[in-house]
User: Fold diphosphomevalonate decarboxylase from Streptomyces davaonensis.
Amino acid sequence: MRAEPLAHTQERRTRATAVAHPNIALIKYWGKRDENLVLPRVDSLSMTLDIFPTTTTVRLAPDTGHDIVTLNGRTAEGEPLRRIVAFLDLVRERAGSACPAVVDSENTVPTGAGLASSASGFAALAVAASAAYGLGLDATALSRLARRGSGSACRSLFGGFAVWHAGLDAATVAEADLASHAEPVLCGDLDPALVVAVVDAGPKTVSSRAAMRRTVDTSPLYEPWAVSSARDLTEMRAALLAGDIEAVGEIAERNALGMHATMLAARPAVRYLSPATLTVLDRVLRLRQDGIPAYATMDAGPNVKVLCRRPDADTVAEALRGAVADGSVVVAAPGPGARPVHEDGR
Ligand code: DP6
Assistant:
């Protein structure tokens, strides 16, 4: 299969396949100001990875009577199915279609690897579904659409580093909806790697959706973090432009620890970080003391992603392997944005 540029998707199709990669936020998205439109309270910035792609095919199926969704070979039901059908409803509404679809999605993240698959999942679904229903959207519109499936998915439309605008300056909700999408970020000479340390592959106890709602509603630390996160973003853009990996890492680490502090102060507290997480954080600190720039970030789970220079990635991975006895360590580099895929091998 071969990837093709987005412009080639414009013609009407009844079947389309797309591939998308996960992204990891260096400036976090945490908190919504509109749950239905998935409008965030803060801007965020991420790196799209070159590992664990999701490949999704959407086929219009007028005779099935309802949507049929298969995730990694198993028929989807419950909440995952509900979210995908709601997303397809959005696409159908825009296309003026009532036609059900058959969706087949393969995610290459090893089962329970603790890396969010909703970003790559909804980015691939946005590209495949909009092509199958003939919407002819550009990358910005696809990013906006992917956002409705899962906020972080809007960043996976773009490769490398991407910023997601919250649209906070918009005067109306409709304007904010238009303004809230991701776009690529200008970077200087940076050769980064992200070393993923999986310390616990089990399912999370609280979904990120529920956890961010509780944090916004009850944590006295949420507003101060949101204010400082806006400053972090400005500094992060400058650090990326300067190709300054130390500054990029320092800002990313403090932003992530601040986000987790907001959760710890929620009522009741949300705690994703485990003793194993702290062991890895200690190891990252020791790497820095040994002169290797390595900086940690954590999302809605105990696993740790460590930003470093690509030439240092093997040393960092080796050090983390020593810290996660039962876990696994994978090295990622910046990866491509979501795109349609030819199925005929051309
Ligand atoms: C901690 O994008 O999964 O990974 O919009 O509710 O689907 P929903 O949330 P989701 O949240 C990701 C939160 C995060 C930080 C980030 O990726 O920016």
User: Anything to note?
Assistant: The two ends are 7 Å apart (CA to CA). Confidence is low (pLDDT under 50) at residues 1-11. The longest strand covers residues 54-60.
